[in-house]
Design goal:
The protein has one domain (2-207). The chain is flat. Helix content is 73%, strand content 3%. The chain has a two-stranded antiparallel ribbon. It has 229 residues and is mainly α. It starts with a helix and ends with a helix. β1 (160-163) and β2 (169-172) form a beta hairpin. The protein contains nine helices and two strands, in the order ααααααααββα.
């Protein structure tokens, strides 16, 4: 039982860390770069991706044994599209401002590489519970990535935080605006900054690991030298 729990948590945390869909696998970049001018948009897109990813991959995991290989791809896409359509109806009905802001990118969740990639590479080959944890982890990793980009772009780009559908408030944070962050190029700049930061952390961790291995080897050599002498 304990091994099962460890494995399940590993399936979850890999999507946040070593297999982050945006910063490591570089998937779902269209929405990550297009809709992150506002935090509210990023939050709604994150909820949509998590909902569609978890629901579709779990269903795919359930039916994987009875779906013929020849029709696997259209079946997977149809399942994903069904949940995307449901989420689109909900957003259009209850969050009209965000729905308009997200535009075509909401419907394009169907073709998001994260969803189809996890359906094909994981859900179609694994049981329900690991698939659920994988979907939650990948969705959480995607959400943290795009919300992080949106926070920087909205605060520095517009100097404010505005919510219109999820809440009704507007907060002025800075007395200036960095206009480039309002443009498409701004998304690349912010994402490049995050990528550089995570690469630095990764290399630093690897360097410490190698130093620890080197120290351990040195210690073992000293012990053997003392034993021989």
């Amino acid at each position: 039982m304990s091994n099962e729990k460890v494995n399940l948590w590993d399936e979850f945390f890999k999507g946040i860390g070593r297999m982050n869909p945006v910063y490591i696998l570089l998937l779902g970049l269209c929405s990550a770069l297009a809709i992150t001018t506002r935090i509210e948009n990023a939050i709604v897109m994150s909820v949509g991706v998590i909902f569609c990813l978890v629901c579709s991959t779990v269903i795919i995991s359930i039916v994987r044994a009875v779906v013929p290989g020849d029709v696997r791809i259209p079946v997977f896409i149809s399942i994903i599209a069904g949940f995307v359509t449901l989420f689109g109806f909900f957003t259009q009905a209850y969050l009209p401002t965000v729905y308009s802001a997200l535009g075509v990118y909401l419907a394009l969740i169907t073709t998001n590489c994260i969803l189809y990639g996890r359906a094909e590479a994981y859900a179609g080959k694994n049981p329900i519970l690991p698939t659920l944890m994988d979907g939650l982890g990948m969705g959480a990793g995607y959400s943290l990535a795009i919300i992080g980009i949106a926070v920087v772009r909205e605060i520095l780009g517009f100097g404010e935080i505005v919510f219109q559908d999820l809440a009704q408030f507007e907060i002025t944070v800075l007395p200036f605006q960095v206009g480039i962050l309002q443009q498409s190029a701004g998304a690349y700049i912010v994402m490049a900054g995050y990528l550089g930061f995570f690469m630095y952390l990764s290399k630093r961790k690897e360097r410490k690991r190698k130093e620890a291995i080197s120290l351990e080897r040195k210690r073992m050599m000293e012990e053997r030298t003392r034993e021989v002498s």
